[in-house]
Automatic annotation (TrEMBL):
Residues 1-58, 60-117, 123-181, 222-278 form the CBS domain. It comes from Candidatus Aciduliprofundum boonei. PANTHER family: CBS DOMAIN-CONTAINING PROTEIN CBSX2, CHLOROPLASTIC, CBS DOMAIN-CONTAINING PROTEIN DDB_G0289609. InterPro entries: CBS_dom, CBS_dom_sf, CBS_domain-containing. Keywords: CBS domain, Repeat. This is CBS domain-containing protein. The lineage of its organism: Archaea, Methanobacteriati, Thermoplasmatota, DHVE2 group, Candidatus Aciduliprofundum.
Length: 278
């Protein structure tokens, strides 16, 4: 887990949360009261799903997936899967926040235990390949409609030639930072900002009409010759590749070296809920 995470406090405002997201380049955080006890959790998506709300108490989610510090890894994995969220909050017996767990935290456990179940057993999401000539605005629309953050890219013969993530896409986005800063209410204290954090917040703030993506093919921005994983490979090998490269996903190929799926770090967490070990 990540110990002593950045936390928002209630009472507080949307602007308070945005400042923390930008300054620390994070996408969400626990919400605590003045005594440091957990009250909820808030993410950038929660903020932009409630555009007219200013008070943090009305924006945050109160139904928080949480675990105790002495809970087993298997129980923590089950909790994450049950809630379908990427963040678990670790609390003590008084609901004081001790840490946060994400899917990436589970990867090292999968590798250490050498979980041997095949990768193909944990594929849970549909795979939508994009042709390398797909314009970036269409790629962006696909991401917003499917809620997927990465797509495999194929050529005319449906052969995998690349992968594109939301990060690749928004590196090409044309956004007036001064307008964004003003609309987000961040003020002029530039030293307190993390520009990468600001870019991450803008991804959702400018969800539709305010993002200006060039009409160029995805083949020009994709990651070429991406690392892949064989469908029959043990899941610990996929976890190891993700850890080494800081990936959240991998294309999956079959015995004919054909693309058949994408597997995500959150998919691999399931392997700890009832896995086979070497």
């Amino acid at each position: 887990m990540t110990p002593n995470p950045i936390c928002a406090k209630v009472p507080g405002t949307k602007r308070d949360v945005l400042r923390l997201l930008v300054k620390h380049n994070i996408t969400g955080m626990p919400v605590v009261n003045e005594e440091g006890c957990l009250m909820g959790i808030v993410s950038r998506r929660d903020i932009f799903e409630h555009p007219d709300e200013e008070q943090l108490a009305l924006i945050m989610r109160k139904d928080v997936p949480l675990v105790k510090v002495d809970d087993s890894i298997e129980d923590a994995a089950r909790t994450m899967m049950r809630y379908g969220r990427r963040h678990l909050v670790v609390v003590d017996e008084n609901r004081k926040v001790l840490g946060v767990i994400t899917p990436q935290d589970f990867l090292s456990v999968i590798v250490e235990r050498r979980v041997s179940t095949p990768v193909e057993n944990f594929i849970s999401k549909p795979c939508f390949p994009l042709h390398l000539c797909t314009p970036l605005p269409v790629v962006f629309k696909a991401m917003t409609l499917t809620l997927l953050s990465a797509f495999p890219v194929v050529d005319d013969n449906a052969q995998l030639v690349g992968i594109v993530t939301d990060r690749d896409l928004f590196e090409k986005a044309k956004v007036d930072m001064n307008v964004a800063i003003s609309e987000l209410g961040l003020g002029d204290d530039e030293d307190s900002w993390n520009w990468e954090g600001l870019r991450n917040v803008i991804k959702l703030f400018y969800m539709e009409e305010k993002v200006n993506l060039p009409n160029i093919p995805v083949g020009e921005v994709m990651i070429k010759n991406p690392v892949t994983i064989f469908s029959k490979s043990p899941v610990w090998e996929a976890a190891k590749i993700m850890m080494k490269n800081n990936f959240s996903q991998l294309p999956v190929r079959n015995t004919h070296d054909e693309l058949i799926a994408m597997v995500f770090d959150s998919d691999l967490v399931v392997s700890l809920t009832g896995a086979d070990y070497e």
